[in-house]
Specification:
about 190 residues, Jelly Rolls
């Protein structure tokens, strides 16, 4: 009796420090090193901005996604820098975190900023139709900076994509170089 891995599977023999590698076409499922250790890196990404561009203005708007064009960790190339989105290579629970460094140049102390994760272009997909609103910057005095850090666990199906979006009720500047978007498969 053998192990069935699907039609597009590939099993490799020794290569450098790798004793065994099983790849099912979309990502490496298992890597065993010559010492018998599982060397599979966790599926995930850490994205940011490659070059400093200073403060970027975001005007009163419908939701807009934040473009992250650089990755420091990107297992199986799941984060696409051209689209600024993560695509799930397999079903499972993923944890996402994002942070945006903001500055409120005008408006009122009651103005706010909504950072959110969109799944497949929607704020409510994979959340039972509920929208996870977060309010940041409310009560911050005009002329001061604030962050819009968020985290959320989301169950994704293979092929679902996640983007970091934000909405502001007033003009907010953000410093993309000090911002990030990250996500990892946790189970």
């Amino acid at each position: 009796m053998g192990i069935y891995l699907g039609t597009s599977s590939n099993i490799s023999g020794p290569s450098g420090e790798e004793l065994l590698k099983i790849n099912t076409g979309t990502h490496n499922n298992l890597i065993i090193d010559t010492y018998g250790n599982n060397k599979k890196r966790p599926i995930g990404f850490i994205a940011g901005q490659a070059a400093s561009e200073g403060w970027v203005q975001q005007n009163v708007s419908p939701y807009k996604y934040t473009n992250f064009d650089s990755v420091s960790y990107n297992v199986d190339n799941c984060f696409n820098t051209s689209l600024a989105r993560f695509t799930a290579p397999q079903n499972g629970y993923y944890i996402f975190t994002a942070s945006q460094y903001n500055y409120k140049p005008s408006g009122a102390n009651t103005d706010y900023h909504h950072p959110m994760f969109f799944v497949n272009g929607s704020a409510s997909v994979r959340r039972g139709g509920r929208v996870m609103y977060r309010m940041r910057g409310r009560g911050v005095t005009v002329g001061y900076a604030f962050d819009s850090q968020i985290s959320e666990g989301i169950y994704l199906l293979q092929g679902d994509y996640v983007e970091f979006w934000s909405y502001t009720i007033t003009t907010v500047n953000f410093y993309r170089t000090y911002s990030h978007f990250a996500g990892f498969l946790v189970g």
